[in-house]
Design goal:
Helix content is about 70%, strand content about 0%. It is mostly helical. The protein has one domain: Amino acid/polyamine transporter I (Up-down Bundle), CATH 1.20.1740. The longest helix has about 35 residues, at about 260-295. The protein starts with 10 loop residues before the first helix and ends with a helix. About 55% of the residues are buried. It is a multi-pass membrane protein. GO terms for molecular function: transmembrane transporter activity.
Length: about 400
Amino acid sequence: MNQQLVRSTSLAGAIVLGLGSILGTGAFVSVGIGADIAGGAVLWAILIAAVTALCNGLSSAQLASAHSVSGGTYEYGYRFLTPAYGVTAGSLFVVAKSASAATAALAVGWYVTNATAIPEYLAQWIAAAVLVLFTLLVLGGVKRTNWVNAAIVTVSIAALLTFIFTAHQQTAVVVERASVKWWHVLQAAALLFVAYTGYGRIATMGEEVQNPRRVIPLAVVLTLAAVTLLYLGVGSALLHFPGIADFQAEHFSLASLLPNGPIQWLVTAGAVVAMGGVILNLILGVSRVVLAMGRRADLPMRFANLNDQQTSAPPATWLTCIVMLVLVAIGDIKTAWSFSAFTVLVYYGITNLAALKVAKSDRFVPKWVSILGLVSCLGLAVFVPWQVLLSGLVFIVVVLLIHQLRR
């Protein structure tokens, strides 16, 4: 007999879980990267990214309702499209989320070195140590409980609101780039989209929430609305710092804009806690997809092996850690985040395409939502830096060639 989870999660609980999965590197790093690209127009970029994320979140909820299995679009690609789409989606997920984790780890390194006397050149080593530490914690069975998640959300929001309030005590300055064009806004939107992608956690809660067909879409909308307000608050706050026009996006942290003192330490602590939680979630999520790909033989089957207690998957988890460490070796937050942006946009393009194949009897999200999501994802993907775009396309071609040869 199949066992099902008790439907004990309310709308408020789903929103808190969603916030815990989203808030992190996006709020504390990527809004600053967006401001570096688009200047004051970063607020428009945030809104474009939010609309794209909303469409994708609803498509993900539709798919999770129609085909409730772990593995996300890797499984949806197999179920609703073709194996090639599934393999591509799985590979993109592993790389995209690994790049996000690498960005979060690098950001932790920069936040720590900015707030202490530790030399900046050690930021990469701190990032690598953080990834290895969290990998060991995952192998030891550590997970984010609902209480831990709520605590992380509380600390994150408190730090962000403190930053926003402090910034607005200063006079706003004009933060414009002389050469900002409409495509800069779209490039910023592409990078900011990654800052929303934790909404997938809500979409997978079909067995856990009360009245899922109503609660999940509503939770997606309300969570993304709350996150967008926070991002707009951070974006507008950045306009109050005269030095924002000269910061290095590769090494950016909100705390570095604040004077030394308790407020800077609070923002630093909030950022480190939030991004630590994100790293833990990403190692768990990526390793589970690697495990699923090993079971289907899309990766060597050794990656489907579990430990003796069947509580963790050491080969899949260590492969996840190694991929993340390779990306950390780049040492550039903006490059890692840009690669995550391209790969995750294509990944969610496949998600929307799969959502269009859901049977009419199972559909509760209009098709136009998935069409808009598909067009938005693929449209924004071409605005990442050309080096990243080229690397991403080569990666997809290689994945498809290997898949074809293995068949």
